[in-house]
């Protein structure tokens, strides 16, 4: 499949992109591997976050998690998923970084605390050595072929950097002098991550928006394809949560939030916040959560 067809199928509203991605990503990756015979080598660092993105990733459907590991990525190191601990784990990380220098994809899940030399997030702790998230990311970032910031904490600081940000946390781009692919969300939809990994494997870096996010998933606002959009256009707004009209009046920030939630949907593609009667809180945005809070606050003007 050509790159343009892949992007089109990911965004094809008429056919339902959740099914398009589901139907095509795995078969295309398998077809690709017949000639290229490689998976995407990945080093995954979990830093300062809640772990929500790896849980979301484990809930990937079509392809399922086992299929992602079998067909799409070669997970070389993960301080969350791997069984090895301590110096054994560090040895694996060092060997992978040296052996696959310039060829691996670095996934960073979480923000990077800067205060007190990054002391507030430790990736590895042996008897005589502490590796902070700041040290790990600044060491591995320049060695990677691609860097993915997974989730809004990694992309922009997110909740880890929310006021008063006592750890001085920032997003990955702020500590690396290079291109970073921001797959934002709190948490991410697993399709956004799996689809980006597949794009990297088969076609290289995807087109990014001005916040560094793949346009194939973040190119439209939530508002554009929201099922309540007709209420908005007719000026019919909910007076309270639970009403069926547009929830702009209840603090919905869908109009300024880039993401395909209304038609990709979540939990095996069956639901998303507005469909579940709660406003979009803008979790993919650069200013989340401070820029959206207090949540659910009715705006002064409709
Ligand atoms: S509920 Fe939110 S996203 Fe949907 S139409 Fe209203 S303002 Fe837009």
Q: What is the approximate shape?
A: globular
Bound molecules: iron/sulfur cluster
Secondary structure class reads alpha/beta
Oligomer: single chain
Number of helices in the DSSP assignment: 12
Q: What value does the average pLDDT take?
A: 92
Question: What is the chain-wise order of helices and strands?
Answer: HHEHHEHEEHEEHEHEEHHHH
Determine the CATH topology of the largest domain.
Answer: Rossmann fold
Within CATH, the superfamily of the largest domain carries the name NADH:ubiquinone oxidoreductase-like, 20kDa subunit
Helix content: 25-40%
Into how many domains do the coordinates divide?
2
**CATH architecture type of the largest domain:** 3-Layer(aba) Sandwich
Distance between the termini: 45 Å
Low-pLDDT parts are none
* DSSP E strands, number: 9
Largest sheet: 5 strands, parallel
Please give the order of strands in the largest beta sheet.
2-1-3-7-9
Strand content: 5-15%
Any idea what the radius of gyration is?
A: 20 Å
CATH class of the largest domain: Alpha Beta
What is the compact description of this entry?
This protein has 302 residues and is α/β, with parallel strands linked by helices.
Word description of this protein:
The chain is α/β, with parallel strands linked by helices and 302 residues long. The protein has 2 domains: 216 residues, NADH:ubiquinone oxidoreductase-like, 20kDa subunit (Rossmann fold); 83 residues, Cytochrome-c3 Hydrogenase, Chain A, domain 2 (Irregular), CATH 4.10.480.10. Helices cover 34% and strands 13% of the residues. The chain has 12 helices and 9 strands. Strands 2-1-3-7-9 form a 5-stranded parallel beta sheet, with helices on both faces. The chain has a two-stranded antiparallel sheet with strand order 4-8. Strand 5 and strand 6 form a beta hairpin. Helix 2 packs parallel to helix 4, helix 2 packs parallel to helix 9 and helix 3 packs across helix 9. The longest helix is centred in the N-terminal third of the chain and has 20 residues. The chain is globular. Bound molecules: iron/sulfur cluster.
